[in-house]
C-alpha cells in the first residue's frame, strides 16, 4: 500500500505519464498510461526505501492528509 503522495501527469517531452513521489527525493517512474505509471512507481518506492535502509539513511514519514475536526 502506498502511503506517500504520488503526483501523476503527462509529459510531452517523454511522451509518457510520469509518477513523482515528492517526499522521496528522486523517486519517480513513467508509463504509457496512468495505471502503468502508478504500478511502476510502486516498485520504485519499495526500491527507494530498501536502498535508504541499506545505506542507513532517514526514511521520511508520509505526510498524509490533514484532518479537520
Describe the protein:
With 69 residues, the chain is of the alpha+beta class. The chain has a single domain (7-55), classed as Double Stranded RNA Binding Domain. It has one helix spanning 34-55, and strands at residues 7-11, 16-20, 28-31. The protein has a 3-stranded antiparallel sheet, covered by helices on one side. Strand 2 (16-20) and strand 3 form a beta hairpin. The radius of gyration is 13 Å and the shape is elongated. The protein starts with 6 loop residues before the first strand and ends in a 14-residue tail after the last helix.
- Order of SSEs: EEEH
The count of domains is 1
N-to-C CA distance: 26 Å
The outline comes out as elongated
Mean pLDDT, nearest integer? 92
The CATH topology name reads: Double Stranded RNA Binding Domain
Radius of gyration, CA atoms, in whole angstroms: 13 Å
Question: Which stretches of 5+ consecutive residues score pLDDT under 50?
Answer: none
Percent of sequence in beta strands: 15-25%
Q: DSSP helix count? A: 1
> Looking across the biggest beta sheet, what order are the strands in?
1-2-3
**Mind telling me which CATH architecture this is?**
2-Layer Sandwich
Structural class: alpha+beta
Counted beta strands = 3
Quick one: CATH class?
Alpha Beta
Q: What kind of sheet is the major sheet?
A: 3 strands, antiparallel
